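Hey,
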Amino acid sequence: MLTELRRWPYLIVAAGLAVHALPGTPGDPVLGLLYVGTAAVGLAYAIRAARHPALSPAERRPWRYIAVVFALMTPMAAAFGASRVDGQYTISVGLAVGVLLRLTLTGALVWGLLAFLSEPLSGAARRKLVLDSVTVVGGGLMVLWYVLVAPALRHHHHFDPRTSVAMTFAVVDLVLLLGACLVLMRGSSGVARPLVLLLAGVVVNLVADLVLGFALVHGLREGAVPEAAALANFVAPALMMLAAVERCRVAVLAGRRRRALPRYAALPYLALLLGYALLAVAAVRSGSVVWIGLVVGSVVMTFGVAARQVIALRENHELVVTDSLTRLANRTRLRSSLDRAAARCARTGRRLGVLLIDLDGFKQMNDAFGHEAGDEMLVAFGAALRRSVRPNDLPARLGGDEFAVVLADLTGIHEAVAVAERVLAESGRPVTIAGRTHRIRASVGIAVADPERPVPTNELLHRADQAMYAAKRNQTHGWQLWGVDGAGDDELRADLVVDVEAGQISVVYQPIVDLRSGDLVAVEALARWEHPVRGPVPPSTFIPLAEEAGVVHALGMSVLDQATRQVRRWQQRLPEGRALQLSVNLSAHQLERPALAAEVTEVLARTGFDPRHLVVEIPESAVADDESAAPHLAALRAAGARIALDDFGTGYSSLRHLTRLPVDVLKLDRCFVAELNGEAEGSAVAEAVIRLAQVLRLETIAEGIELPAQATELTLLGCRNAQGYHFAAPLPPERVDELIGASIEAWPHLPPVVPPRVEPLGV
């Protein structure tokens, strides 16, 4: 709400409009007082804006000139008024002073407008601006010539007072028009609302001069034209006064984003259209058939040339802001779109996000198959990226194998994560590159700005870049959210402790499938953490934090408790003859607890879960010291649980572990599955692990199955069970409910033969 002091300018404007609108009001005396009041209030606010401590020197500078404009308004009006006798101007000192003051006022106003201009232009841009300004001023000259100059010269062969005043208005209006069009076509760093009001006052002033000049030239003393001129003469300074008021008001709104005035590049074309419209009117009024035909022909030709130029300009603009290879936006367009999105989110209070994406294995592709194959990979990923984003998102290629997505109007971090997961899923589909089938892998960094704590767009990009490199270090071909890896760890660690103690860690289940029958035989329980502010936090981030905070065992026991209760309910729904195993993970830190086996069996007893249906997965790195791990594993096995060695082949890979530790299952790591390509060298490691397990009478479970060809080849190699996105992603409990009791047809059928070579990409 406006303060009492700020209401006065608006009351003055309302009073002036009422004087013009209501019949019977004393016109000239009241309007004169209101005009003087407008000039005085405008001067006060312009001086205040020129000295406002919240404004920078560059922001204060234009209002010094505007203050001069308001200071000259009253003496100029008095001088012109003193030179009028019976409504007509007479040659006098007052007329000369009025003309001189009008020229000075116009000069100050133009300098004030020019002070709003943004940074200096380059040589080419400066020349373009000059030509555009000439076009606009030329259109204004045509209007002034047709309305003022030509009638004045036609009716008054010598320069009498009326002609002198009309010519003065024509000259100063051309200069004023030049200043206004420079601001409109170049844009301004000033706040939009005050500048719009100021420019509106300038435009109304031009209209007032045009109408007043028309009345002077034609000797009109009464009627609609003089009344319109009088109204415009009041509205113009009133709008300028309100501009000064708004400038002072905006200056005190600390912390609010200030929107600058955009550029109006179409102004020269509007001036051209106005000029030809005026030519057409003049030709029709002249009654000459010759002139009408010539004008129509000129309009058609100019329209054709202008339309062609507009199309060429749009094409050139697209070339400048589009990546030529992928047809995505380039870095230039990304920057401008990010700035606009930041301004929009600041107004709406929604979040702004950025994804930064780097392709894994791009260099290997170039080295192995050449740069043309690398280009095909970039084009294929660009198409996948375009299919994955939302309609209002902007996908872009930054250069090389780096891509980005601007995510505007986010309601929460979960939306950014959803887009990242769609990108990873879509890009992971098989594509043909260099005549072979490949999968494109990527690492995605996510950064989301809080509207209550806005950050510069450069900083937002930097955060996404940091998150992307964190994702690459994890080597998971996944996404990483900024603020949960490195920056903000202390705060995140504290939040994790609170949520673990409050039981806020949820569990999802990834199905494990019998490769021969396609039937669901087990589920692996996986912990998930939804941060109340930052959204989903990947396990690669919060598990190490839980270990550092000393709550990893509490987290593991919480997962075990939830999972055993849930799987027991599913087991009760299974038909006769079917069983469902549960796999849970234990960390190396948990294996250091002396009472680990007792704590696990206590949870099983409390939930009523049969230990014979439990598979305890331990990382291979955790059994480096088998002297300490073996008793825990033996106790768990004695209780009925089975032991699985996770990520086999990626850690210590000592056969001594398999012969001395109570291991029942080997889990073949995804990195070996990714090497499967239908050829002997690609399946060498996987086949060796499977054969070793068969010799030792161990079960094998392959992880990371993403393609039907991988499932087929593993089946032929003798692997029994598998899990991966080819079958199902980790699912919430309600989705697994739909699978319990489902027939084999609910799972994807495996191809009967090994398909052509598949080249896996990525680290």
